[in-house]
Fold this sequence. Notes:
It is a multi-pass membrane protein. 81% of the residues lie in helices and 0% in strands. By secondary structure, it is mainly α.
Amino acid sequence: MTRAWIALIVAGLLEVGWATGLKESNGFTRPIPSILTVIAMGASFYLLSQAMKVLPASSAYGIWVGIGAVGTAILGMLVYGDSTSPLRWLSIVLVVLGLAGLKLTT
């Protein structure tokens, strides 16, 4: 079970990487960021599929998406100058609380 959770967390972090890579690839017009994005996508999906062998699909998928969404939002604020409004932070906190709820009920 622990290995499944580790795979899921790494898959989620790779999702942050490939979501950011999509921006950096400029619509897949820049070769290196494009290649790295596709590799991160493949690795993320593979690790998610391995985690889903053990974990319920609803929890695994929700947590994977949540890690990606929260991580990408935070990275966007830190690196790309996205809005850092209090409402945005509150929304991120709510997603994290939802992820914790999924974990606690799995």
